[in-house]
Structures are given as C-alpha cells and as structure tokens.
Amino acid sequence: MDSTKWISKKIAIVGSFAVGKTSLISRFVEGKFPESYVTTIGLKVDKKTLEHQDYRLDLVIWDIAGQENFTKIPHFYLNGSHGVIFVTDLTRPETWEPLKAQMAILKGILPDAAVVLAANKKDLLEAGALQRTLAAYPIQPEITVSAKTGEQVEEMFRLLAAKLIHIHESLHT
Amino acid sequence: MNLSTLKLRLLNHLSQVLVFRRDGTLVASCNSLADTSALEQASVYALFPMLDSIRELFDQLDQSAKPIAIPAVDGPMLGRPGVYDFEIYGHPESPELLVCLVVDHTALYRRLQEVQQERNLLLLEQAYQQRQSQRQPDQV
Questions:
Q1: How much is the pTM?
Q2: Which of A43, A102, B29, B88 is 20 to 30 A from A17, comparing alpha carbons?
Q3: Which of A45, A58, A90, A91 to mutate to test the interface with B (most CBs of B within 10 A)?
C-alpha cells in the first residue's frame, strides 16, 4: 500500500529586487533560466509537486516582487505562508548587509514559518571571492545557488521541504 | 438608464465575481472576464492554486470580516492572461459561502512594470558604479 502522505504548502520567495527570485523559480519549475531581467510586478504564482521523504508536497510558490526596502514588503502577500526562501545576491552587498534586521522583520510577520536563507549568483564568483563574500555575510546563508547553472536549486527547495515536513509532523503527531 | 446600471455596464468587462462554498465548489460566476459555464461544480481551489494555498485564512472570513486582498497577481485568470486584483469576502447572506472579486488592472500594472523596470535597472547601475569607485583607491 502506498504510504505517501500528501500535503499542500504555500511558500513565499522574498528578497531585494533583481536577486534572481523569478529565475530560481523558473529553473526549479520549468528547468529554464530566463536570459533577460524582467522585473516582477506584485505577485506571480507557480506550483510544483516535490516528493521528499515519504511525503508528496504540493508547493504553491508565491514569487513576491522585490523591494529595495524589506520593511515595505506587503504583509498580505506573506500571510498564510508555511515557508519562506529569502534570496540574496552574492554580488550585491546591499542585498545582504541588512540581513539581521530583515530576518527579524520576517520572523515578526511569520513566527512559525520554515525559512531558508539562500545566496544566489554563485556562478559569478570564483572560489576565493565566494569564500570572502560569505565571510562578510552577517548571517551565513544555508545554501549557495545559481539559477543560471541550476546548481543547488532543487536542493534549496528540498531544504525547505525538509523543514516544512518537520514542522508539519510536530503539529500533527 | 440609472447611474448604477450605467456604472455596472461600463465596469462590467473589468471584473468578475465568483461565489463558492467553503469546500471550494463553484456555485455561481458572472463570467465577465472568463467563461466558467463548463466549470459548474468545479473546485475553485483546483482552478486557483493561489487560493488553495491560503484556504486556512478563509476560516476567519465571515460577513463582518475585512476581505482578504491579494493585489497585482500576474498570471492567467482561467486562461486569460493579465494582472488581476483578488479580494475574498464572506458572503453577505450565507455563512457557508465565500465571494471572490477579480478585477482586471492589466493596463495599469503593465505601465507600472515598465516604470519599475527602468527604476530597478538605474538602481543596479548606480550601485555598480558605487562599488567600482570604492574599489579604485585600493588599486592605486
């Protein structure tokens, strides 16, 4: 008998503008990398089913337009999110220098949500520069990814899936 | 023709009202933006994964509650591309029902998107120039 458990979760992708949120989703959902930058307006919603451990997760992915100032992110887009991927751009310090304050704001809005902190555009840095950049991060990203090459993109979503399952099980057992 | 009827006629093509049960079953729709006649008894949650993902928020929606607003949703509404504002209300006459108002603001949001794109590109360029000028003294 199939013992797979089926759950549906809302996840929000947030971070400053042009950090690659839409590209990461496109890479994960469609396996493609959009070559040109088109700013997201408001919200785009995608869906992908991920099998992880003995769960089948319907991930409804809310791609929320990036804000220059994270305090301006509209709460109505975040409400009801079970998980969040916070994306930064390794090549632009202004997207990760205020991370401590940004994560505190996020925790204030969604205290119970699973959160993954990711650093994108790994492909643009050579190993030494990547190490130096990560050392300067105020909070260490849990994963470094590249939407362009696809490196670690699925792993990033799996990392969030594992956290979502952990929270789900703690609430339902 | 009274003003209310005239207003309705002028705005009708920009919005759609869907009435559905709390379990998601579509009960009625005005079909102004997209024809749902073939979708009778379909689940609104299957048609709109976005609404499915926040259905637990609807438990608190009753006639007196503030509607849940989700503006500027960029994507097809039942196959019709555009950028829409969604508002979900408790039905004024039945606690078993919910109402979803969808308003098409595509033209406005596409113009905003152009402006935002120009602004973002300018900010990226400025930040890049600033980083370059900060690196210069080290290289001298």
A1: 0.93
A2: B88
A3: A45
